[in-house]
């Protein structure tokens, strides 16, 4: 039994080491002394976000970017109460979502695409806060590197609870895997809260055609389609100036459904690298659970399982720590406790995503 667990862990450790190397290959980027040139259309799908939208719009109003060079399109996906736009200096409009598929968010982006005035489109979420140099840095990167699609970083604004810090560490591992995969030229994941691409490229890819029956995945499926056809045009922008901050959820049930929603997309990935990574991470965490189970059955000595767990903890920590340093100024908390809990959480989410349903924004999927 121990040799089987060692094999699982060896594959897992080699994979995470590869992602760590990939992370270091993605160079950091800062804004330059260039004149602002790129017009942007910011698309924000929302549903019942009257509490959060004013904070997003306030952060957009503080952007260090000419107001003539961007517009904001809010797409209302059947909110219970219509959102009233406050008085703002920049161009912002609210439109109703035109539902035609199984995915409300993809429909919202398609709806906005019909009226955008600019070629460069950025999607973000209603519960986000953007950096004041967000558009400026994107513009400078576009001028210097000429991409057609850009993935960016997302992090959480946390309080001191274990729930919030657990989400922060979990997201750091996902962001680390994202950046690492781009460093290996195998980008397979991104976050729709900070995702930019040209309308021309979107139309060339036929948008969300082929995956619009899947409720989520407006970001990763489009990215993977782009990587399969024109990977040289798809970039990751590793810059502290473009990190978007969002809210963690406030209860475990909502977090579980959110992570199930994210995990449910894995089986439909176009990226073989993404599928393989998902399986390896699942098996690595399952191996730790099996190891403790074998110890309970007296098949394996406890010290052997603790050694395997320690090895996994150390290699995971390297990826998480380097990503956390990029994403946040605050110190990490509950790293060891979260790492002990995570295998049980990860395996539960993975198994449930294959068979169960989830709730999101008051809807069942």
Describe the structure.
With 365 residues, the protein is α/β, with parallel strands linked by helices. Helices cover 49% and strands 13% of the residues. The protein is built from eleven helices and twelve strands. It has helices at 2-25, 53-61, 104-113, 134-145, 162-183, 199-204, 220-230, 252-263, 272-296, 302-327, 335-355; strands at residues 40-46, 70-76, 91-96, 120-123, 128-129, 149-151, 154-156, 195-198, 234-236, 244-246, 359-360, 363-364. The strands form three sheets. Strands 3-2-1-4-8-6-9 form a seven-stranded mixed sheet. It has a three-stranded mixed sheet with strand order 5-10-7. The longest helix has 26 residues, at 302-327. It is globular and about 70 Å long.
Q: Which regions are unreliable across 5 or more consecutive residues at pLDDT < 50?
A: none
Task: Kindly report the average pLDDT value.
Answer: 94
Following the backbone from N to C, one meets helices and strands in this order, namely HEHEEHEEHEEHEHHEEHHHHEE
Strand coverage percent: 5-15%
Shape: globular
Main sheet summary: 7 strands, mixed
Count of alpha/pi helices: 11
Look at the helices and sheets and give the structural class: alpha/beta
Spatial order of strands in the largest sheet: 3-2-1-4-8-6-9
Topology, number of strands: 12
Instruction: State the helicity in percent bands.
Output: 40-55%
Radius of gyration, taken over Cα atoms and rounded to an integer in Å: 21 Å
Q: How far apart are the termini?
A: 39 Å
